[in-house]
Every structure is written in structure tokens, then in C-alpha cells.
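Reviewers of the previous submission asked for a worked example of the structure-prediction workflow described in the proposal, so we include one complete record here. The input consisted solely of the amino acid sequence. No template or homolog information was supplied to the procedure at any stage.
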Amino acid sequence: VQLQASGGGLVQTGGSLRFSCVASRRMFSNNGMGWFRQAPGKEREFVSAISWNGDSTVYADSVKGRFTISRDNAKNTVYLQMNSLEPEDTAIYYCAAGRGSAASRGTEYYRYWGQGTLVTVSS
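From that input alone, the workflow returned the following C-alpha cells.
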């Protein structure tokens, strides 16, 4: 396994969760990382991304101000802190490692994908 995500679960509206995604060093160093999600019956969509050194971050409009992406390169780990969760955030969340060092919204930019972790937000 090269990308291992954890932290999903069931939470009430307004609650918080934090995802962690641990990557192999070969995959993680110097690579931009991203989070995507896929809700039932919908296409996979971009959530957030971070450049290799954390200097640049990008968010989908739907999560801006509620979610925060960060990374710890010493631990080969990228995090997604999710606050003020809403039922619309219910989805399987995937972490991904980019082909380059930048933060990108594009699905095609990402070469490696984790297995996905489920978040269910109850109303």
C-alpha cells in the first residue's frame, strides 16, 4: 500500500473530523498532494490540494473556510481538518499524490490514489 488514509466515520452536522494520509517516502517527497471526494451517484470532485512544501494550498469553494489541508513532510503525511461538517459533505474521501510539486485541482494531475475513507454526516 502506497497511500493509506484514515480518519473517516460518522459525525453529526456541525461536527469535525481529521483525515490523515500516509504515503511512502518515494511518493511523497517533492510531490503535491490532494484530497478528492465522491458522493453516492456523483462524480469524483476536488476538495483541496497542497504543494510539496505547503506554501500553496487550494480549496473547492464548497469547503473553503471549513476545511484545512496541511502536511508534515517528516512524517510523509498529509492532513485534512474538516470543521462545520454538513450532510452534503457525506462521501468517500480519497487522498492522492501528484505528478509534480504543485497543488492542483485536476484529477488527471494525480498519479497515485489511496483506497478511500467514508465520511457520513448525519442531519
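The longest strand covers residues 91-98. We consider this example representative of the routine output the project will generate in years two and three.
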